[in-house]
Amino acid sequence: MKNSIYILLFSFFLLTLNSHAAIIRVNNAGIPADHTTFTAAHSAASTGDTIHLEPTGISYGNLSLSKPLIIIGNGYFLGQNQGLQYNIANSMVGNITVFAAASGSTLTGLTITGRISPWGSTVNNVTFLRCHLTGDLYTGGGTVSNSIVDNMLFDGCYIENSLTPINLIANVSNEVLFKNCYMEGGNLTLNANASGLFTNCIFNLTVGMAVSNYQFSNNILIQGDLTDQGGNNYNNNLCNLAQFPTGNGNQRLVDMNTVFVGYPSQGGFSDDSRWELAPASPGMGAGIGGDDCGIFGGAGPYKLSGIPPIPTIYDLVAPGSAGNTLQIIISTRVNN
Fold this sequence. Notes:
mainly beta, 10-stranded parallel β-sheet, 2 helices
């Protein structure tokens, strides 16, 4: 009964997102919804509609986007960061293929276990907001030799396990922008034709990165080499060795044991809260304009568990049986 009440109330909150566009619910765990598969929901959706992949912990499989939509999940690490969502299951998907016709789409709160592949002549203005990515970022266009990927934004994402390949074909422009992202894995390699920015990110790389024509600001490089392929700019970054150049507010040879609350030992912190800055961290106020470095600094700080920017229910009290009267207590919050 509680699950039914939760779904009903959350559906009401979704209706506040956009009074004109449709809100399409998808549930693959037996809870009544508009559809049981993303493919069916996508077919029924119109430009600008919202598809809510309800949290079940069961993968919705591969997604193929061919129209501009908003895709909303539930967040991640919710069992670790308690009190953020009543339902702590995640909204899991596999590979995501974004066609040119889906330019302008936003995906938020998803756990993405597969590869992200833009595909088509021009894929632009696609945002991955507060998602957990454990697969590859393949920001090329497959066999489409004239593909252009422009302004693909990863904002407040937790990216781990595999950062290679970030494969880019020849015709790209400002194709990948990273803001307030935690990035863990082996290699991070961008094509020499690429350009973009890394701002308020944390890099935890066992091998390193090779980048050109990128702006680095307010980042923290815990470990990993940096191969400068030309055209990069560096301002107010921290690194454990001498990867970033001197000057412009950069700090080299920083003892990373003093930077975070949960590093090198995680202790009782969650997988993402461990990267908050320690009280006396050298990253405090070390960013441009006195901002903090790292994912919790800047104008758009990282949100624990990737909670989407919509109202959420974080507690629900309802009787199992109440006769003619049903008394319900719900606790909600607005997330920016």
